[in-house]
């Protein structure tokens, strides 16, 4: 394992939060979510029903459970539903802030990258 290896950019979701993301559920960038889904063991039916995923904030050592959902057939949207409100308040996220998450496929959870992540080892096996 090498802590100096860069994170796989295909496993990173980045979203500049809008007012509607902060007031309601955060809509995630489709292409980035679809890239991450290649390493998750889920299908469209699972996503339509909602899949609980873990989100780990390494700085505070907090673990959040949020529901990743897919809505719409013609224009599919991915979003965090249940659990998002608790997570956004705990992370003090506001409109204009950037939410950056890394899918750690080895631990089957997202890791919050809203900090200079190269300073902390993520303990991701190579």
From TrEMBL:
Superkingdom classification of source: Eukaryota
A GO MF term: DNA binding
Domain TF-B3, residue spans: 13-118
Name of the protein described by the UniProt record: B3 DNA binding domain
Organism field: Arabidopsis suecica (Swedish thale-cress)
